Every structure is written in C-alpha cells, then in structure tokens.
Amino acid sequence: MASRSIPADPDSFEELFEQEWRRSLFETAVNDVEALATTDMAKLQFQICKRYDIERGSADKLTYDDLAREFNLITATVTNHLHAMRTKVRMALLDRLRSITATEEEFLEESQALLGVKRTSKR
C-alpha cells in the first residue's frame, strides 16, 4: 500500500526530495549560525532574523518598523542586522554545500540552483 506522503509519480518524488533536501540544508545552516551567535550583538541579530525570516508566517505582515519597536531599535539598525544575519546564513549554507559536493563544478551548479548565484567566467 502506497503512503499518501510519498508521491507515486517519479517526477513528483524527485521534486519532494529536492524540497526536503533544500529545507534540511537551510535548517542546518541556520542552526550553524545560531550556534556561532555568542556575543550579545550576534544574539540580537539572530533573534531579529529569526523573528522576521523564520518565525513569521507568509500571511504575517510584520514590517521592519514593527521589529524596530519590538526590539527598541531604529529601523535602519533592524535593516542592518537582517542584512548581517542573512549574509551569515548564506555563507553557512554555502559552506555546508561545499562540504557535500564532490567537485567545484557540482558546487557551482548547486549554489546557483539554491541561491541563484551566477557563475563568473574565468578570464
């Protein structure tokens, strides 16, 4: 008897696998960044990022101004903290991806698929 959570169509199964792989990779990268957030500033940046990018549902209308009020900051500081954490998560994600890809070519293909990172030609 086939499980309802696993699609019978091989293309759908491949898509499901790809989605789960991406989710797991992002989750691991976020956990890596959280573990490295040991200073008060890094912890604050992570909490803001978590609140805005991870915890809020797609229907939530949380704004940078809302976060500024919630964390008693100015909006520009919230923007800067979000940028800093997103960069750290992106770098952790790429580090994880590099550790599981066999070649530079595979790394470049997967990073482009995950993040839209464009290849640069060597001159």
* Computed Rg: 18 Å
The helix-strand sequence is HHHHH
The number of distinct structural domains comes to 1
Overall mean pLDDT stands at 87
Which oligomeric form is depicted? single chain
Number of helices: 5
Largest sheet: none
Shape: globular
Helical percentage: over 70%
N-end to C-end Cα span: 56 Å
Give an account of the 3D structure.
The protein is mainly α and 123 residues long. The chain has one domain (16-115). The chain is 72% helix and 0% strand. The protein contains five helices and no strands. The chain has helices spanning 10-36, 40-55, 64-70, 75-100, 104-115. Helix 1 packs across helix 4 and helix 2 packs across helix 4 (75-100). It is globular and about 50 Å long. The model has no long low-confidence stretch (mean pLDDT 87).
In summary, what is this structure?
It contains five helices and no strands. The chain is mainly alpha-helical and 123 residues long.
What is the topology?
Blueprint: H1 10-36, H2 40-55, H3 64-70, H4 75-100, H5 104-115
Helix pairs in contact: 1-4, 2-4, 3-4, 4-5
What attributes characterize this protein structure?
123 residues, mainly alpha, single chain
